[in-house]
Design goal:
Length: 160
Amino acid sequence: MEEQRVRYTHEVESLRTELQNERERVQASEKVAQENHEGMEKLHREQLSTLEIAMEEQRVRYTHEVESLRTELQNERERVQASEKVAQENHEGMEKLHREQLSTLEIAMEEQRVRYTHEVESLRTELQNERERVQASEKVAQENHEGMEKLHRNNFQLLK
């Protein structure tokens, strides 16, 4: 019995030692788990903070880029409007110039028509005057011829 008691005592001591070792191992494991948990939590907070900073920087970049694009778009719109205005003014200027040129040509053509009409009338009058002169000349020539013929007949008769 003493032996049994010694064995039990030894077994109990052994179990107590084992229990103590297990407790220490559990405590160490809990400590490591707590440290790991705290480390992971710290790491997650750092990662979250880094992500928040990166997102804010990205938001600032995107905001800047959007504003830059808006400004560029506004500048392009203004440039297009200015080009359209210049094109419209050029078109209106060219249209006015063409109307003026057309008006000048119409005036010149009317002046030319009046000159040609006057010249044609003048030439017709001149032609009519020449015809009348020719007719008068032919009449005089005819009369002279008839007169000369009569004179020749008279002279011829006198000579006979």
